[in-house]
Amino acid sequence: MTVTSKMNSVSRQSVLSRLGPGGLLYAANKIIAVASGKEEERWRGKDEGVLFKRWRRTPSTNETAPVVPAPTTPPSQPSDLLKFLAINALELSAPASDALLKSRSSEWFQLSGHPGSLAPAGPGTVWKRRAAGDHPAHNPERDAYEALAACPHMRSAIPRYYRELEYGGEHFIELQDLLHGFRDPHVMDIKMGTRTFLEDEVCNARARQDLYEKMVRLDPNAPTESEHAARAITKLRYMQFREQRSSSAEQGFRIEAVKLPGQPPLTDLQKVREPHQLAATIARFLGDDERARLAIVARLHEIRDLFERSEFFRSHEIVGSSIFIIYDNERVGAWLIDFAKTRRVPEDIVVNHRAPWSQGNHEEGFLYGLDRLINIIETASLSQKSNETTKEPDVTR
């Protein structure tokens, strides 16, 4: 396909309306690359059938690409170039594929969650696909991000929220790429709460054979005698069994994934459930970096304080959300992410996020888990304690 025919297939207005902050920055850099005759690699997802342009960080600490002088004779008129580059930016912003995630493993990656739910939208932003099963007119995660972005107590504790958009018949929200600007960082994704399923997910009391078979595959000794005899269990029984297999039920959080510099992500952490195992995993994550430990603890204290002061959290259950922690040699950051299962509680219900859950009280144990997470990080024995005086790190929000 020629450049001209490709440009004519999409109007300038429809293209520009889709570009977010990251896409505009990418398009500006793309102008320089095209004008100078440089070509970039193309990546095609195995299933998505969409071309991706790969952007690379420069070796310097500067966040933007170096300016390359444009040739005296541009290859096309500015208006044509703008449309062409905007389309290229849109292709980069399309839904992610496994091939893209792997190809950008040193720059951006998804530690856990549903593969393909995130896509880079240019330097500094990502698109997140709406959760499967959500009604087209109902997007709980969008609603939560919009409310928290408007809350003076919470906007600094979450990724920056830009907008909701539609692309290729699917709906996305555009968020800050939390990994942008870090250099080969340590990353940890921690799922918060003693309950990570919604109450309406387990309201059906019908016993199911498929859930019994799942339980037996995970632990043949888990079913009771009556459950073995019936060869069926309820959804609530299975979900609570799953929580008890990790540290969620007892500690109020579980470590979903860890990424250390130069190593592949660790995601098979379901058996890390006892306090000493959690402490050892966190100590491995921190290494001997006392500076990072102190900054992370301070940031988690701040998030907890903001959470407790927020009117939004007084009226919502926060199910399945995570704390995302990142640090490198220069910067430390921690954010509250993932709100696809955040729901407003009934008006006659008061939640404190620490009380035990029982059907109908909407408690999820978020703060119960955060209290314990802070304590474990504070008391974990690092491989060696630095006696040198280090300057205060740049705590990123």
UniProtKB/TrEMBL annotation:
Catalytic activity, EC: 2.7.-.-
Primary enzyme class: transferase
Keyword entries, A-Z: Kinase, Transferase
InterPro entries from the UniProt entry: IPK (IPR005522), IPK_sf (IPR038286)
Pfam family, one: IPK
Transmembrane segments: none
Alphabetized PANTHER family for the sequence: INOSITOL POLYPHOSPHATE KINASE, KINASE
Family, per entry: Belongs to the inositol phosphokinase (IPK) family.
Protein known as: Kinase
Organism: Iphiclides podalirius (scarce swallowtail)
Lineage: Eukaryota, Metazoa, Ecdysozoa, Arthropoda, Hexapoda
